[in-house]
Write a structure and sequence with these properties.
Layout: H1 2-65, E1 69-74, E2 80-83, H2 87-91, H3 95-100, H4 103-106, H5 109-125, E3 135-142, E4 148-159, E5 165-174, H6 176-229, H7 238-276, E6 282-285, H8 286-301, E7 307-311, E8 317-320, H9 322-340, E9 348-356, E10 359-366, H10 373-376, H11 396-407, E11 411-416, E12 422-429
Parallel strand pairs: 7-9
Antiparallel strand pairs: 1-2, 1-5, 3-4, 4-5, 6-8, 9-10, 10-12, 11-12
Length: 432
Amino acid sequence: MPEKLTMENENQRRKSRYELELRVKERTNELVQANKLLTQEIENRKKIETTLRESEKKYRILADNVSDVIWVLDIESFKYIYVSPSVIKQRGYTPEEAMEIPLHETLAPSSYELCMNLLAEELKNDSFSAAERSKTIEIKQFRKDGSSEWVEVTVRFLRDSDGKPHAILGVSRDITERKQMTEQLLQTKKLAALGNLVAGVAHEISTPLGVGVMSASYLNDIIKEFSASLSPDQPVDLSETQKYTKNIEEASSLILSNLTRAAELLNSFKQVAVDQSGNEKRLFNLKTCLDETLISLHPKYKRTRHKINIQCPENFEIISSPGAFSQIITNLFMNSLIHGFDGIETGIVDVKISVANNYLLFFYQDNGVGIDKKNLGKIFDPFFTTKRNRGGVGLGMHIVYNLVNQTLKGQIDCKSSPGNGIEFTIKVPLES
């Protein structure tokens, strides 16, 4: 009996030792595998960290050496959280100094207002939310020495894991020299436009004045003839008197109507010239402004079959810059005339004015040849033209862009494709 118990105990110990060795072996294998995975994870992390350091180094080199200023602005605090070293060359500040300056002290008042309105609108609509979407505007900012400069700023939202915008990534490019050159060319273009306006005045007014002069000469002749027919020795012939009277009335009526027409044309041209030479704000009737502008444009297309239709409320008065609207419709129509209607006999332009949510909506459409996709994105760029070999300068649409964005504080969008004409939608805030 004792021997049997001893054998059973020994077997039990051997079994327990075997199970223990088996568990140890299994645990050891698990630890070995875990160690391999840990080693692999460490190696992967090292590779990732090395790649990140290399990428960060490359981007840091890029940010430190480009002439454009790269910056990040926190939306909630409205403070800069990053400014690239290139700000030293562009504005004279160190990155640390630039980040401490509030945005409203960085920008000129009008540019700050433009940015705030744009940001509020974009946050409301979330319209450049996708990574490939961005917005480009021209604003004026201050340098450390107190001078100002124009910069072209391209911005887009940075988002958190929930997709909520938390910061704005921007790139600022100095365009002061380009702006000055553009302004000089714009002044030259304005003078040329006024020269064309004077030529148009002379051409349009010459017809009613010519008819008026001929009628006055005819009136003078029949009055002399009638006076010569009167004699104290001869009785007055009633039928002859009635004939002369009728001729005098007709000649006088022709003189009056043509001189009135000439005066109306002159007033219209005068108002257009005054408006286009400045952008002062005043209360004006938009329909009248557009009609007067069309009168000045009539010599450009009177010998063609092209038509322009304007749908605008008759008594629509706004406080804005009539000169800006006059120049916008002029440049848009000339763009259609020169580019859109090239090779088209009957070009049609439709302009529709409406109001929505305290915004004026200005819709312009033509049935021209349209624009291909590669050129559509350049249409508002200065000096871009497809007619350079035919005297095109490429400033007409850039003028429109600046008038809408800078003068009227609005936005302009363009849609087009080859063979389907072009559409411009302008959205301008209304002043009360």
